[in-house]
Amino acid sequence: MEKKIMRTHFCSDRGERAPNQPQREAMDLPSGFIIYLAMLFALFFVNASVAQTFPTRPLRLIVPFPPGGTIDMVGRMVAKGLGEQMGQISVVDNRGGAGGMIGVELVAHAIPDGYTLCLCSAGALISSPLLSRKPTYDAKQDFAAISLIASAPYLLLSKMDTAPHSVQDLIQIARQSPNKLNFGSAGTGSTSHIAAALFVSMADIRAIHVPYKGSAPAAMDLFAGHIQFVFEAIGAGTQYAKSGRLRALGVSTLKRSKILPDLPTIAEQGVPGYEMSTWHSVTAPRNTAKTIIHKLNREIQILLTKPDIYENFVAAGTEPEGSSPEQLQEKIVIETQRWKKLLLQLGLMAQP
Q1: Which of 2, 152, 166, 221 is the most exposed place for a label (fewest CB within 10 A)?
Q2: How far apart are alpha carbons 215 and 222 in whole angstroms?
Q3: CA angle 124, 210, 119 (to 5 degrees)
Q4: Helix, strand, coil percent values for the chain (each to nearest 5)
């Protein structure tokens, strides 16, 4: 009996199968596969359940600039609309500074549960980190794209009671006094900064950049005469011009704006080929559940079709522009490459 047992063990060690071994192996593989499938189904139903009940508490929409600018106005309309549609309070949290990087970084490092979102400008999302020696986020990797929101051209503004009165006047004054004119922006790397830097380069003038923590503080200093010109999104820029305190010298797109059809483009006034505009989008931290991303996207598309939202966006100087999450992600990738090329041409790209 002892020898038989030893022989059985010996045969097993050589790879010979015991009579009941095939049955045991046949049972092992399916059981693991069934467990794997069960986990997938459980994950699917958990995510579906979360999406159905989302949101169960207030949403926070980070606007990475101080109150008063165009992006802040758009942000408040989006927050109000989403809150009403989804049956939850939705609040705007202004976190300005560093060309928008402070607020955007906060979202990049937030818990990916869908309750902290960013209304990002193209400058804050893409160009600001490209201008930083130590960027704290990557637009392509650190966010879950939800939807485009709007696009807008810029106005070149100067103080009403002083020269210049046109783009050509500004160019002439700057050439007569190199580095004597100061221009403000919403912060280093913001789209308003790049718009001005591109103008300075293409107009072949020299001027000093003064960064602020948002476009509204820059406009206040232009009112006070501390700086001589700024690029402001057309919504807020039109309001400043209508107030009689600032003068709109030109619009930044190749075609005239429907909002100010009598205002010539900068390209028409001696800077051929000049073009710059901005776009705004809603993003979440990466790893946010896709079911939540798509639910937020559907709500935003519904919001953008509402007549009052369209009218208010246009009044703010923006054009509503929605997208799928995939379309926005593709735009972020393409625009990142475009901005890199532009910043290198302007000599603004940060060196590690």
Answers
A1: 2
A2: 11
A3: 20
A4: 50, 20, 35
C-alpha 272, offset from chain centre: 28
pLDDT (0 to 100) of residue 10: 40
- pLDDT classification of 8: cutoffs 50, 70, 90: very low
Q: Give the whole-angstrom CA distance, residue 158 versus residue 241.
A: 9
**Radius of gyration of the chain from its Cα atoms, rounded to whole angstroms:** 28
Selected residue with higher pLDDT from 336 and 18: 336
Residue whose pair of structure tokens reads 């004119």 in the numeric block: 181
CA distances, 244 to each of 70, 186, 197, 229 (Å): 18, 22, 26, 15
Q: Nearest-CA neighbor of 296 among 57, 143, 43, 117?
A: 117
Q: Is the dihedral of CA 263, 250, 274, 214 positive or negative?
A: negative
Structure token digits, residue 65? 């600039």
Give the whole-angstrom CA distance, residue 165 versus residue 8. Answer: 102
The owner of tokens 């007569």 is 176
Q: Are 154 and 237 within 8 A, CB to CB? A: yes
- Beta strand pairing status for 277-285 and 143-159? antiparallel
Contact 178, 280 (CB under 8 A): no
The whole-angstrom separation of Cα 79 and Cα 63 is 10
pLDDT digits (tens, 9 = 90+) for 305-329: 999 999 999 888 888 999 999 999 9
Q: How do beta strands 59-63 and 116-121 pair?
A: parallel
- Whether residue 49 has pLDDT greater than 80: no
CA 52, CA 295: separation in Å to the nearest integer? Answer: 9
